[in-house]
Amino acid sequence: MLSIRIRFFAGHRDIVGQAELSLEVQDEATIGMVWEDLCVHYPRLAGYSGRILFAVNQQFATATTLLADGDEVAFIPPVSGGRS
């Protein structure tokens, strides 16, 4: 088992109800697998699928990125706003 820390921002944080979550995942888990599991536990997150960025240890990643023990994972929701 791997121990990871997940960081949530904006709407994700509102859905989950906290900014960080510690989680135990299976060896050879990918960031995409973790996202899918979170969507099962927090169904409203599924609405963001296909529109988020993944990061591992503050580096952009893909859904197929393998995780390691102690990794910090972030799911970054789409952002908008600003002035034109």
Automatic annotation (TrEMBL):
A GO biological-process term: Mo-molybdopterin cofactor biosynthetic process
Protein name: Molybdopterin synthase sulfur carrier subunit
One cellular component term from this protein's GO annotations in UniProt: molybdopterin adenylyltransferase complex
Gene name of the record: moaD
MF GO annotations: nucleotide binding
Any one Pfam family match given in the protein's UniProt record, by short name: ThiS
Pathway: Cofactor biosynthesis; molybdopterin biosynthesis
Origin species: Candidatus Viridilinea halotolerans
InterPro entries the UniProt entry points to: Beta-grasp_dom_sf (IPR012675), MoaD_arc-typ (IPR010038), MOCS2A (IPR044672), Mopterin_synth/thiamin_S_b (IPR016155), ThiS/MoaD-like (IPR003749)
Keyword Nucleotide-binding assigned: yes
Residues in coiled coil: none
TM spans (from-to): none
Keyword check for Nucleotidyltransferase: no
NCBIfam families, A to Z: moaD, moaD_arch
Similarity remark: Belongs to the MoaD family.
Assigned keywords, A-Z: Molybdenum cofactor biosynthesis, Nucleotide-binding
